[in-house]
Amino acid sequence: MNTHTETLFSEVETANSKQLAVLKANFPQCFDKNGAFIQEKLLEIVKSSDVELSKESYSLNWLGKSYARLLANLPPKTLLTEDKDHNQREENKNSQNLLIKGDNLEVLKHMVNAYAEKVKMIYIDPPYNTGSDGFAYNDDRNFTPEQLSELAGIDLDEATRILDFTVKGSSSHSAWLTFIYPRLYIARELLRENGVIFISIDDNEISQLKIICDEIFGEANSLGIIIHNKLNSKSDTLNIQKNHDFLLCYRKSITPDASLINYSVSEQEVFEDNGRFYILKDSITTRGDGGTLNKRKNLGYTVYYHPETTDFIGVSDYDIELASSSNSEEKVYSDNEELIANGYVKIRPPKVRGKLGAWTWDIKKFNSEKDNIVIRKTNNGYQVRKRTFIEKKDVFKKADSLYTKVKAKGNSRSILDYSTNDGTNQLSSILGHPDVFSNPKNVNYLKYIFSLVPENNYIALDFFAGSGSSLQAICELNIDDGGIRKFIGIQIDEKCKSDSTAFDLGYKNIFEVTKKRIIKAGEKLKKENPDYNGDLGFKIFETVNDFRTKDESELTLSNHTFFDDVVLTPEQYDSLLTTWCLYDGSLLTAPIEDVDLNGYKAHLCDGRLYLIAPNFTSEALKVLLQKLDSDKDFAPNKVVFYGSNFESAKQMELNEALKNYANKKSIDLDLVVRN
Ligand SMILES: C[S@@+](CC[C@H](N)C(=O)[O-])C[C@H]1O[C@@H](n2cnc3c(N)ncnc32)[C@H](O)[C@@H]1O
């Protein structure tokens, strides 16, 4: 059994500490005995392999970049708690969807242990920093210049200049970059290896964003940029209207299934053949240079076709050896006179740029799969086409012809037309009032871009949820294609301005708008699709102040204790439990089961037993050991208890008893004293 003591989120990080820890774990030989990094050793390792070294290098630097790196590494300052009333409602209690209230940087930091490599698709629509969208950098970290200088590894002057904008609320490019960089950095950690991220942006920050996305995701992982034509008529610049914004698309890594695929559905004409229905496919010829008979001498047979009986057969009526050099039909081919006398016409492979052509199927395949071939008269001869049979139920009549719907696979177009007015109207109709939220995205635009992700059972994340358009789009897509995508939306409780419509209607903050929209959209979708049994509910969590946090002025590299002994309120108790489960790797939707130990309430989540309450008695310990012994379904691999609520004698008793038990049974049981 292993026992250790830890303080939740107590690690003090510097701008590069997490990255260095990865290097140290994988390349210990690159560090000297005092832990200093030896750059040359890493170069030696790289040089000895086939890696090509580039001598060119460029990057985007700004005032605050090292601070942004530090922000990505620092632990969260908050705890997470659930909205029990909402989550226990019938429609939400089994839901796998989440809406989380709080600053997304805090929430992403909480999520990183449990959700690392679990998210298939991220969509974000961050503040564009237009000058009128209210973006101003806000930061409540409260570092002194000395602290920041030490933790970020920068000089005092730079630290002072950075703190100047973090305190004042700047909307400079540097401030915007400092805001977005750590969020994208952590977002990448949440993506699955085949995950993709879509980021909406306009021309105010596209240049900056593209370069840091190349840095964070890798230039080779850019999937392209979509221009979203907003179909508006607004002239909001001096010379050129702004009728579009952009969508940057990146994948996490180069794996084939991290690509985007556009499945388009089109109507295709259907033909009937003796009560069976079919659609036409390609001809069995190729038009490229490789499609000549000279290059494919075995594929030059003639198809003899009887126009009245529609019978046909492939006949090898040519000189195969001559076929590799000559392009004279008279010399290479000799007609089958008998078939011609019986009314057959000859169909030879169409010529390719003046040269004799070839089929793509060999004669054996051709004659054995005749049912999959159809011969059609054209203006200047006959076409030999493949055909695919379809079921009668898939055929419909339009005018005097028959049609079916065919799904085709392709790439997305890079210019997409989706009206922003429609987005506004969609939101107004759901909330029953216009102007509650400015510029919500068009749900159909989001449905289209999400449908490019070639899976339909995954976790989707939007950490700038706004009015919740993307969350509605996920629900609608699931209804359309039977998918089981789960959404996670994150939205800060940004106050609604006192002169806004939202405020007049009683919404105190944007989070309340998000929540209302998803509830209302769920109700509307259920009404329109009464037989749909998919997940239209969602659970709510929110960040709360960490009651364990001491004054942050004590946060330095050498001093990082956090807690005083405390008596927990029920809210603090719940927030510790929720935060711990997530911190230990359980999804927020994982069930937490109460375990009764002779009146002492413990909690079991994904094989970990949590003991938070005070008054853990010797009787409770006895029941715990009995339960471990006799209840086959009760087999935790880790026991975590709240150190502040276990005086040291009780800690020792628990420790000894569990150690003896684990040794006797030869099982691995970790014991963690957590503060
Ligand atoms: C451009 S809007 C997103 C609009 C959304 N796509 C829609 O269609 O409704 C950006 C949203 O991000 C929110 N936001 C800004 N900073 C945030 C932060 N640090 N954490 C969470 N949300 C934030 C804003 O309150 C705003 O609602």
Automatic annotation (TrEMBL):
Gene3D superfamilies (UniProt xref): Vaccinia Virus protein VP39
Alphabetized Pfam families for the sequence: N6_N4_Mtase (PF01555), T3RM_EcoP15I_C (PF18273)
Occurrences of domain DNA methylase N-4/N-6 (ranges): 119-497
Alphabetic keyword roster: Endonuclease, Hydrolase, Methyltransferase, Nuclease, S-adenosyl-L-methionine, Transferase
EC number: 2.1.1.72
Residues annotated as domain Type III R-M EcoP15I C-terminal: 572-667
Single annotated GO MF: site-specific DNA-methyltransferase (adenine-specific) activity
Protein name as it appears in the record: site-specific DNA-methyltransferase (adenine-specific)
Keyword Ribosomal protein: no
GO biological process, one term: methylation
EC top class named in words: transferase
Family membership noted in the UniProt record: Belongs to the N(4)/N(6)-methyltransferase family.
Species of provenance: Snodgrassella alvi
Catalytic activity: a 2'-deoxyadenosine in DNA + S-adenosyl-L-methionine = an N(6)-methyl-2'-deoxyadenosine in DNA + S-adenosyl-L-homocysteine + H(+)
